[in-house]
Design goal:
Elements lengths: L29 H10 L9 E2 L4 E2 L11 H4 L4 H6 L1 H15 L5 H10 L3
Antiparallel strand pairs: 1-2
Bound molecules: iron/sulfur cluster (SF4) (2 copies).
Length: about 120
């Protein structure tokens, strides 16, 4: 069975456009939305994302909605489909940000392949 894992040097989920994220309505509080808006730069990337090394600069203290292992439990899709749901989410993010044939997509597919 495939199991989800995050990969290094990605951050595809660190670019926000809440207008495109209807899936988040109902799972984010108004406080969360205000925090996301304050964290989001003009280019859509989180201001805490270091684009040079593709790492979160506040990783240890990142907000709860950035902690996939915890936040995923808020989604019905995760409760129903488990890691397959997370794999689909990451695949969409990576495809949108880096492309279907990107290095990040290859690395991600390899990391979640049947072990
Ligand atoms: S899109 Fe997925 S693999 Fe990439 S940083 Fe986010 S959680 Fe990790
Ligand atoms: S706080 Fe860190 S993990 Fe969360 S979106 Fe920003 S860069 Fe990504």
């Amino acid at each position: 069975m495939k199991s989800w894992s995050c990969i290094e040097n990605c951050g595809a989920c660190c670019r926000f456009d809440l207008a495109d994220r209807e899936d988040l309505s109902g799972v984010l509080s108004s406080k969360d939305i205000a925090l996301i808006n304050s964290m989001t730069g003009n280019d859509g990337w989180c201001k805490n994302f270091n684009k040079s090394n593709r790492k979160c600069m506040i990783y240890e203290s990142r907000p709860h909605f950035c902690r996939v292992n915890e936040f995923s439990k808020e989604f019905k899709g995760y409760l129903k489909r488990g890691d397959k749901f997370l794999i689909d989410c990451c695949t969409q993010h990576i495809s949108f940000i880096y492309g279907r044939k990107s290095k990040q997509m290859k690395t991600f597919k390899k990391s979640v392949s049947n072990k």
